[in-house]
Design brief:
The chain has 67 residues and is an alpha+beta fold. Helices cover 19% and strands 42% of the residues.
């Protein structure tokens, strides 16, 4: 995704990490917006369910989205 783009969360590829992401509000069917990347490329900032969330690239890579 590019900064400002919005997608819908469709699921997760890592079962263990998905529990943590679900607790943080990354629910399947929820819209997610990619805000920006930190200056060195990791972490990234997304908006989900009305708040901003910072994720490591390896965590974000486990989120499946629909464009």
């Amino acid at each position: 995704m590019k900064p400002g783009e919005i997608a819908i969360i469709s699921g997760f590829s890592d079962e263990v990490l998905s529990v943590k992401l679900l607790e943080m509000g990354c629910l399947p069917g929820a819209p997610v917006r990619f805000n920006f990347t930190a200056p060195l490329g990791d972490p990234i900032c997304i908006s989900v369910l009305g708040y901003e969330l910072s994720l490591r690239l390896e965590e974000a890579a486990t989120i499946s989205i629909l464009n």
